[in-house]
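Instructor's aside before we start: the two examples that follow are unrelated to each other. I chose them only because their records fit on one page, so don't look for a connection. First example below.
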Amino acid sequence: MKCQIAIYSGDAVFARMLELEFLTRNMSVITLKHPNREVFSEVALLDLDSAAAPDAASYGRMIGFTRGAALADDGTRRLCSMILHRPFEMRLLRREVLGEVDGTALLSAEAPARQTRLLLDAKRSVLSIDGQKIALTPRESAVIGCLLKNRGTPVSRQALSVCIGESSANKTDVYICYLRRKLETVCPQRLIQTVRGKGYMIP
């Protein structure tokens, strides 16, 4: 078994669809309507419209699903590594789950042939994605600047925390989440990849 996945959803059809997807990949899958502290999983898939979020320390990495991301409170959204609006592409889900669990980005077959053009104006804290501009906070700008400087190479959470002047690497995850949400408004491709045990990377 590659990993154990917990699915939290009040939508039986939705939960079964996810369960079958990962069972075909020989993974251990459990489905629950509500969090159960006696169950541990490496990855927790949440239907934020119908399930309460489990505790992050007990359930590892969480991915959030919702028809409308606004229905999830800020605390829950920060715990999730991504928000997928329905209908979503299963390949993106597989890349997010398998990419981190296996420690590889799994981009060889799915990445576009053309590399996304990213330009950062650090002084103004503005990021340009293929010509579309996004306003960033100074700390978000520092994080994306560090990732761009090391593009193609994973940057550790500790190194990123130094860039933003935080003593705790946990704060890095918060800013990565903020950045991903902003980037996804103009680019459907997952620009900031998670590399398990190594940190984050822009390919």
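Example two begins here.
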Amino acid sequence: MVVPHPNLSDEVNRNIIQSEIEGGVFLEGLPRNTVLQIRTQHHFYTALLLGDGSALISGHPQYCPEPVQVTIAGSTWGGSMLKLRFIGRGMHLEFHHPAYSTPIVTSLIQEIHEPVGSVRDEARVAS
């Protein structure tokens, strides 16, 4: 159970609790070469995790129509508070693109999944 933090606003505490309800994935818990498919309100992204927050990401017609190496900062609720190295439903993915000085922030994430036949599925089958 998540307990509201006394030093944070009600809005921030609500967002933290909502992110626990909506779910998501912490990047530190995933091995290199994990593929994540991330559906937002407007686009469908594919991210190949390279480790240490780096990923090859594609799926946006302007910023990444082809895979480009980025650094995933985490997810936000639309403000400046960032849940580090976390990709969460109902949140906005934030990543740093090498061609842009400011972070790219996606529309709301609606779904995150690891496709069947991914590296982790193959490792489970092999063991």
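Strands lie at 24-26, 35-40, 44-51, 54-58, 68-76, 82-84, 86-88, 92-96, 104-113.
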